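SEQUENCE WITH STRUCTURE:
===
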Amino acid sequence: MVEGSQATDSRDVALTIPARPDYLVLARLALSAVCRLTPLSPEEIADLKLAITEAANDFVDDSRGLDDESRLSFAFRLLDDRLAMELEGPDTSVSGMEQELSRAIIEATVDEVDFGTGRTRLVKYLSASQS
């Protein structure tokens, strides 16, 4: 039911989970593991976990039944100067106000964000001189 894979470069991690809120803890754990390889502070890591959770809200729906096959994919890529995170999943009907608040939280916690149909890309620079 939960699929995870690690690319040949140990600095790239991909995870695919059911598009349900109760599985988001797995993405947060994967992000925490990747962040252990960075110079990010515990506060910055907590901010990234919040950002990834908020970004996932565009794709998860707690009304989905256990037989729903919708999936949410996460890709974490650790580069020398930044951590890039990409989410891909099914669109859900999130209210405008809820989505606006989520996006404000995301924009306050990462250095770059790109919202697209069915995907969101987040970037956190690892050096203060590059943000």
Remarks:
- DSSP finds three helices and six strands in the chain.
